[in-house]
Amino acid sequence: MSNSVHAYTHFVSLVFDRNTQYGLTTTNVRQYLDNLHTLSRVIRIWPHQDHVNTIASKWELSQSLDIIAQERTNTARPRTRLMVDGERIVNAMVLKRTHSDAGEHVIIPSDVYKRNWDYLRGQLDVPGSQWMVQSFVEHLPKLGEWRVFLVGGKVVYTVHTLKNQDRKTWYWDVAHTYYTLEELR
């Protein structure tokens, strides 16, 4: 089984352990994926099962956003690059795993106990995942992040992600109200 299929198996098992409305669990998800792979030999399935691992990668998304910011909108973006195993970890940078779950693998500079290679290596349970380093945006933990989902050029919905200070992780909700640019400055 390819790494991307294994990563998808892991992803699906994590998702459906939390949400069993479709009847998938960690015990039967392998059979589901095997059946899906067999079915894909007969009919076209999009996206292709082997592409899911790439689609879920924050590295791929970051590269796309860099191109949009630089070539299309001429706007600033936090600098992002893949880390080399064992490299010195700069305290002023954000660490992100390429494959994450609801911001569980985003380490801001104040999360000092997670900023070491023993911890980072122990979090690479998704095959093909790597750690990235990104410029720290000072207001991110306080103001959060807005993700706007567009379909056919129209806004479908906006998600607001905020830092949960108690759990030291992130949570999100669909945004219904917004700050103006003047309020953010």
Briefly, what is this?
The chain has 185 residues and is an alpha+beta fold.
Give an overview of the whole structure.
The structure is a single chain. By secondary structure, this protein is of the alpha+beta class. It folds into three domains: 3-55, no CATH class; 58-137; 141-184, no CATH class. It is 34% helix and 21% strand. Strands 1-4-2-3 form a four-stranded antiparallel beta sheet, with helices on one face. A three-stranded antiparallel beta sheet has the order 5-6-7. Strand 5 (145-151) and strand 6 form a beta hairpin. The longest helix is centred in the N-terminal third of the chain and has 16 residues, at 3-18.
Radius of gyration, in angstroms, nearest whole number: 18 Å
Q: Tell the overall outline.
A: globular
Helix percent reads 25-40%
Could you tell me the mean pLDDT?
78
Number of domains: 3
Low-confidence stretches: 13-20
How would you classify the quaternary structure? single chain
Give the SSE order as H and E letters.
HHHHEEEHEHEEEH
Q: Which structural class is indicated by helix and strand composition?
A: alpha+beta
| Major sheet: arrangement of strands | 1-4-2-3
* Number of separate helices: 7
The largest β sheet comes out as: 4 strands, antiparallel
